[in-house]
Design brief:
Elements lengths: L2 E4 L6 H11 L3 E6 L10 E5 L5 H9 L5 E3 L3 H9 L3 E3 L5 E2 L4 H16 L12 H18 L6
Parallel strand pairs: 1-2, 1-4, 2-3, 4-5
Antiparallel strand pairs: 5-6
Amino acid sequence: MKLLIDADGCPVVTLALREARAWEIPCLLLCDTAHRIERPGAETIVVSQGADSVDFALLKRLVPGDVVITQDYGLAALCLTRGARVVDQNGREYTDENIDGLLRVRHAAARIRRGGGRLRGPAKRTRAQDAAFVLGLRQILVQACPSGEK
């Protein structure tokens, strides 16, 4: 098992790396040339800029049982079909039960933007969101690790 992070714009890279080190799980950071992110204890994979280039690079390295961190509902859906566990930056696990609804919301938001509408951006990140992320990731790691515990 490894931890793969869709690192472009990911606000929890440092928190995720701390957990990966604690669990002794290899970690890959995937980003494009515009968001080059390197951290000790993680392998960084930099791909050229382009629509979904990071997503395709991540999918190419993914095997069943891996854990993925992403904010991208489309990428999450693809990871689920490949047998990965997927969590967002707030600790919510994407599942077969919730991904369709999330994709519908994304599609509706895209329609509004294409029509000239504007949507409010995310609020400033809070400590509570960071704590929820760590809790959610730990729950997944407990379930995903062969021994069930660190």
